[in-house]
Amino acid sequence: MVDLRTFDRTDDVSKLDGCNTRNVEYRWDCFSKELENIPRGSEALDFGAGSLRDSFELAKRGYNVTSVDLGHDLLLSYQADYDWPTNGTTRTMVTGQDLASCLSQLDSEKFSLVICFDVLEHLEDVVSVLRQMRTYLKPEGRLFVTVPNGRTLFELWFRLILVTARMLGKKLRPGEPHLQRNSPERWKRILNEGGFDVLHHEMQIGFFVNTASALVQIPLYIIGRLVRAIGISFPTDKIHDIVCSKKAMANLNRIDGKSKHYFNNLYGWNLFIAAKL
Asked: How far is 83 from 58, CA to CA, in rounded Å?
């Protein structure tokens, strides 16, 4: 049986609070601060819920959660991995052929919060989905979004993989390729075109950490593919973790902290808080 848990984050921190990546533990508080203005017991929509890590976090914090994603059996499998709270919150799962069709199953203007973490970059028509999503958000509701910065080396590499796959006629799994490669400014315009006003924007995952990881990981990926093609195993992740050790990345993270003023627009990830226009 094929393991479909490519994006398993059950043991990771919720993206409401941060992200453990590139051997660095990133933490932020913009989402949690905004959550203080959304009453417990409100309805929250986790759009592109993946391994349900953020749905679980919202439930723990007292929100009724509707989790939307592809693959009903996969979501059930992830659901079984958590010790869900008995605090009176409700949980609903909605699945379908694609994320847009999942939205069409929901009641309009129901949600006080919509979270969309690491999802929009996988969609062909982001503006159309945002406009559809907007109809399910209450007038005073909030949208939380995380999306990659298309200016980074990783995103240039992902674009090359996508273009090559299309040229060779290779079919990629839904959710696997990044179909969007947008700058921070372009992401803001996309949110505006989708009917949202950006209230807060910040960049996370520093330039030096992100670039160093890419410079190591991309060649290792290429070598690993070539070696495995002739039937030999290759410890890609182990080598990456040795070269990009926690100590080395901690040093680069300190450099990122001191140089963010100069490299902010080359950081790896965008965090957005938005409201309806």
From this structure: 13
For residues 248-268, one letter each, b for 16 or more C-beta atoms within 10 angstroms of the residue's C-beta and e for the rest, the string is ebeebbeebeeeeeebeebbb
Strand segments (E) across the chain: 18-21, 24-27, 43-47, 64-68, 91-94, 111-117, 137-148, 196-204, 269-276
Helix %, strand %, coil % for the chain, to 5?
40, 20, 35
For the question of whether the overall pTM of this predicted structure is more than 0.85, the answer is yes
pLDDT along the chain (277 residues), means of 10: 64 95 96 97 95 97 95 90 94 88 84 96 93 94 97 90 80 72 96 98 97 95 90 91 96 97 96 97
CATH number at residue 32: 3.40.50.150
Residue 246 lies in a domain: no
Q: Which residues pair with 274 in a beta bridge?
A: 143, 198
CA-to-CA distance for 113 and 50, rounded, in angstroms? 17
Question: Residue 247 belongs to what H/E stretch?
Answer: helix 246-263
Q: To 10 degrees, the CA torsion angle through 195, 198, 204, 206?
A: 100
